[in-house]
Amino acid sequence: MPPADNTAALAAATRRRAEQARTRAEQALSTAARTGQPTTVAGLAHNAGVSRSWLYTQPDLITAIRQLQQRQPATGRTGPQPATVASLRHRLDTALARIKQLRADNAELTHRLETAHGEIRRLRAYAPPSCKASEANEVISATLR
């Protein structure tokens, strides 16, 4: 007895499954458009009970999803946003405080440098005549430590 040829029945079942999947995907797309909920390929595939890969094989449905996404506002911040007045004010206050601190540090260092130069000048002016320059520098270095 030859094997039964059931290819016609299998092909018909495959067509029915594909039609049902397409109908479910179209219904899910229609529901998403009515509700205004954010639409993604993954979300629509989940709601329709189909795979994303199958959905991507349907160019007209993908085009419809993209058009629906463009009509919907973005759900979150998607890129650089302008700074608020409060954040700019905080950054300015922080920068001004830092500038004030750096100016105070600079003034302190300038005063210390001026004092050191004065001390060097005083030591050189009153170094004994028999003192060599190298010895004077050693005395000055030791004094400034």
Secondary structure elements and their pairing?
Blueprint (H helix, E strand, L loop, with lengths): L6 H29 L5 H8 L3 H5 L2 H13 L13 H41 L7 H12 L1
Please describe what this structure looks like:
With 145 residues, the chain is an all-alpha fold. Helix content is 74%, strand content 0%. The protein has 6 helices and no strands. It has helices at residues 7-35, 41-48, 52-56, 59-71, 85-125, 133-144. Helix 1 (7-35) packs across helix 2 (41-48). The longest helix has 41 residues, at 85-125. The model has no long low-confidence stretch (mean pLDDT 86).
Fill in the keyword field for this structure:
145 residues; 6 helices; rod-shaped
Separate helix tally: 6
The proportion of strand residues reads: under 5%
Shape: rod-shaped
H and E order: HHHHHH
Instruction: Please bin the fraction of helical residues.
Output: over 70%
**End-to-end span in angstroms?**
112 Å
Q: Which regions contain 5 or more consecutive residues with pLDDT less than 50?
A: none
Q: What is the typical, i.e. mean, pLDDT?
A: 86
Question: What's the Cα radius of gyration?
Answer: 41 Å
The number of distinct β-strands equals 0
Summarize the structure.
The model has no long low-confidence stretch (mean pLDDT 86).
